[in-house]
Specification:
This protein is 35% helix and 21% strand. By secondary structure, it is α+β, with helices and mostly antiparallel strands. The chain binds zinc ion.
């Protein structure tokens, strides 16, 4: 069966000397993998037709058996060229694409995640450097929600009274630990979460980057609305633990991505130059 769909490139892997395996996210078929034979040959019809983070018009032969489909035609509709000029935005985009490839399923309607990813990829190169991490965290928050894995951040009037700033969150049950409940599991893995971090999480839900107005982030329009860095760090740690626990993705990929977003290449270049003999 031939299928025509729009699709965004998540990953490209070499396959033999001249071919590629391309992983795509589609709105109606979820994550799919296509083989592109002879992709690197000089006369390949696919040269320049797809690259990382492109959204394309895709025609492929659907195969039910081994899960790898044969590509028939492909032409780019959104190239996201600015991502190729800013390595920091590209690092963020690579992390989000990798995470999405790991947690989405094949042949499953994924329109909500597809649009979330495209809007975030559009917004990344337009965001000021200091807002990149917030954009990544916002993607993670909304990805969890679209996958049906949103943590339950409801408060209990008995255990989480307003005088308590730090709350214990249970990772296995995905909600705040509630000692007043009979049968509350003792010894289950919990993390401390500040009330303000909980609020930032809730503020980020359903607030996606708006591409219509040039990708301006709803929360970052003014410094006053920008979450303080220490709370964003707290949210990042919480999300890191939650995502590792519930989505079973290796934590190293995320850690490296956030380290790259923090890097200051200018300073490192200077220190390298001064240390040379
Ligand atoms: Zn309670």
């Amino acid at each position: 069966m031939i299928i025509h769909t729009e699709a965004t490139v998540l990953q490209i892997r070499p396959w033999s000397q001249t071919s590629h395996m391309v992983t795509w996210l589609t709105p109606d078929y979820g994550r799919i993998v296509t083989a592109v034979k002879g992709a690197c040959r000089p006369k390949s019809a696919f040269l320049g037709q797809y690259d990382l983070f492109y959204t394309c018009d895709l025609l492929f032969y659907r195969r039910e058996r081994d899960g790898i489909h044969a590509i028939r035609e492909c032409s780019p509709s959104t190239l996201r060229e600015p991502l190729r000029r800013c390595w920091r935005s590209a690092a963020a985009a690579a992390y989000l694409s990798d995470l999405t490839a790991r947690v989405t399923a094949s042949h499953q309607e994924s329109a909500a995640v597809y649009h979330l990813l495209n809007r975030t990829l559009d917004a990344l190169p337009r965001a000021p450097r200091r807002d990149l991490k917030e954009l990544v965290l916002r993607y993670e928050v909304n990805l969890l929600a679209k996958l049906g894995l949103k943590p339950n951040l409801a408060l209990c009037p008995h255990c989480h009274t307003p005088d308590r700033q730090w709350l214990r969150f249970s990772l296995p049950s995905g909600r705040f630990a509630c000692p007043h409940l009979a049968g509350a599991a003792s010894g289950e893995r919990t993390v401390a979460l500040h009330r303000d971090i909980r609020q930032i999480f809730l503020n980020m839900l359903d607030r996606l980057p708006d591409t219509a107005d040039g990708g301006i982030l709803p929360c970052a329009e003014t410094d006053k609305n920008r979450p303080p860095p220490n709370l964003l760090l707290g949210l990042s740690r919480f999300l890191g633990m939650f995502i590792t626990f519930h989505l079973e993705v290796p934590p190293a990929v995320r850690r490296v991505a956030f380290e790259l977003l923090d890097k200051n290449p200018t300073r490192e270049t200077v220190s390298l130059e001064t240390s040379s003999p």
